[in-house]
Amino acid sequence: MVHTHNNNFEGLLEKHHLKKTGPRLKVLSMLSAKNVATSQPDLESVMSDIDRVTLYRILSAFEEKGIIHKVFDLNGTANYAMCSSGCGEDHHHDEHLHFNCTNCKNVYCLDELNLPPIKLPKGFKPEGFTLYATGLCPKCSKTA
Ligand SMILES: [Zn+2]
Ligand SMILES: [Zn+2]
Ligand SMILES: [Zn+2]
């Protein structure tokens, strides 16, 4: 579940023609510091100096640019995780397995587990696939 992160956040923003603002850099460093996806409420609680609307805008801009992707957890809450380098503006390739831990509620991006090609019946035009697994993460299964 190790992302190949580009830790040059300023360069990342530049590449996507986004202004280098403090809040944007903060969001990037927060999301890439964790190996689990982070929910918006979690981000809010850490970045109390940024209002909710600003944070929402930052997240949607990042998602649009292919910097982060959204994953839903078991409660239907949106979580955000860094994208792999294969993602770009208006196209995401985050078709990897997402593991929802039923104990700690963490959402893990298992980048190394890519979805097999799925052929849908005639007439269906998919825009994306999401595969979720639920259960205990390594940390929780050890203590269980
Ligand atoms: Zn992506
Ligand atoms: Zn867990
Ligand atoms: Zn992911």
TrEMBL record:
Residues that hold Zn(2+) according to the record: C101, C104, C137, C140
Protein's name according to its UniProt entry: Fur family transcriptional regulator
Residues annotated as transmembrane: none
One MF annotation (Gene Ontology) recorded for this entry: zinc ion binding
Cofactor stoichiometry and binding remark: Binds 1 zinc ion per subunit.
UniProt signal peptide: none
A single GO BP: regulation of secondary metabolite biosynthetic process
The protein's required cofactors: Zn(2+); Mn(2+); Fe(2+)
Swiss-Prot/TrEMBL keywords: DNA-binding, Iron, Metal-binding, Repressor, Transcription, Transcription regulation, Zinc
Keyword DNA-binding annotated: yes
Family: Belongs to the Fur family.
Binding residues annotated for Fe cation, in chain numbering: H91
Keyword Repeat belongs to the record: no
